[in-house]
Design brief:
Length: 171
């Protein structure tokens, strides 16, 4: 089955008729592979069968296509999400960042004292190397034809975990 055929089949199952949506599904298949995109479709259909998913305000249910894209956006690492949905990055960049004032707690103070700068920098260096290896593996998988992309999600999940730990060490 070709990428275009798979995209049309998935779009049909989601009830999506707009050409732009069908094109986006095709892009997802090209980047993530048919197997992973089919897995997201199956999860979408399962969520729909058990009552669906509400929009973030709770006012209404998402459409099946809305559930599908919600799952895709939520599961992709930042780089792939920005590649497939560049308008989200621009939309978020326009909003002024409002960060709540940090509240110090005795636990945070104690943790900070326990972790020395040298330990953090050593761990950070290890994480950066692991991140680079994961990015190389991701690039190698993405270079394959979509039907041969195996392990893509495992690599993306590993990359997310590494980046979460890097973020934790930076804070």
């Amino acid at each position: 089955m070709s990428v275009a055929e798979a995209a049309n089949q998935i779009a049909d199952q989601l009830g999506e008729t707009e050409a732009s949506v069908r094109k986006k599904i095709q892009q997802i298949i090209q980047v993530c592979g048919i197997e992973q995109t089919q897995a997201w479709l199956e999860e979408t259909l399962s969520i729909e069968a058990s009552g669906g998913l509400l929009v973030h305000t709770g006012e209404r249910r998402r459409t099946p296509g809305g559930v599908f894209f919600y799952l895709v956006k939520g599961r992709l690492p930042k780089e792939l999400r920005q590649q497939l949905f560049p308008y989200l990055a621009r939309k978020r960049a326009k909003k002024p960042a409002q960060q709540p004032a940090a509240q110090e707690s005795p636990i945070q103070d104690t943790m900070a004292e326990l972790l020395s700068v040298s330990e953090n920098s050593g761990r950070l260096e290890e994480l950066r190397k692991a991140e680079q290896e994961m990015l190389e593996r991701l690039a190698a998988i993405q270079a394959l034809p979509p039907s041969e992309r195996v392990g893509l999600m495992s690599v993306m999940k590993g990359l997310q975990k590494i980046r979460a730990e890097i973020t934790t060490l930076h804070s």
